[in-house]
Design brief:
- The structure is a single chain.
- The chain is α+β, with helices and mostly antiparallel strands.
- It has a single domain, classed as Inorganic Pyrophosphatase (Alpha-Beta Complex).
- The chain has 3 helices and 9 strands; from the N terminus they run ββββαββββαβα.
- The chain has a 5-stranded mixed β-barrel.
- Strand 6 and strand 7 form a beta hairpin.
- The longest helix is centred in the last third of the chain and has 19 residues.
- The radius of gyration is 16 Å and the shape is globular.
């Protein structure tokens, strides 16, 4: 019996072993770390590829959408050059928020995400963009082409979450979230992050 192609005999690293998607920067893969049901912040462990507990949420807010990253992306110098207000990026894979009609409660899944826009975020002085997408085959949202077609409440909730998710009472927040940008700019950010990855880690 022959193995299907592609076939992974061992689990690939979610950041380095998966492709960026079937048609990047328009349709990308999203590896999901967090769901709207999680009250603990999970983050990919860069060495092992497993999910690591980063921290329990201090505040009561939880991510309003699926939240993860695009494989084989890296926020480096090209991503930083596109960010107003900073000259460096956070050195992590590019984050993505994915909207779906049906609740998805399972993390560590891969899905096809249709890019519609993004949020420019500066965290501790570093570019930390959040791409906004819809589930590519979603029954309700798959037709959406750009962020202005989404109900405003989705962007409002995402902006509020990222503005407050590191907030500690009595301290200033280290996060600045700017206005949302459209699909065209989001695709340029993704292309920059893919180029930064190839420059940093190679394209294999």
């Amino acid at each position: 019996m022959s193995f299907p192609k592609p076939f992974y005999r061992w689990r690939p690293h979610p950041w380095h072993g998966l492709s960026s998607g079937p048609n990047p920067p328009s349709i990308v893969h999203a590896y999901i770390e967090l769901t709207p049901f999680d009250r603990v912040k999970y983050e990919i462990d860069k060495e092992t590829g497993y999910l690591r507990v980063d921290r329990p949420h201090r505040a009561s807010s939880v991510t309003p959408t699926l939240y993860g990253f695009i494989p084989k992306t890296f926020c480096g110098r090209r991503v930083a050059e596109m960010a107003i207000g900073t000259d460096r990026a956070d050195g992590d894979p590019l984050d993505i928020c994915v909207i779906s009609e049906r609740p998805i409660s399972q993390p560590e899944v891969i899905l096809n995400a249709k890019v519609v826009g993004g949020l420019r975020m500066i965290d501790h002085g570093e570019a930390d963009d959040k791409i906004i997408a819809v589930l590519a085959n979603d029954n309700l949202y798959a037709h959406i082409e750009d962020i202005h077609e989404l109900p405003d409440i989705y962007v409002e909730r995402l902006r509020h979450y990222f503005s407050t998710y590191k907030l500690v009472p009595g301290q200033d927040t280290p996060v600045e979230v700017s206005d949302a940008y459209d699909r065209s700019h989001a695709e340029r950010v993704i292309a920059a992050a893919i180029a930064d990855y190839e420059e940093t880690y190679g394209n294999e």
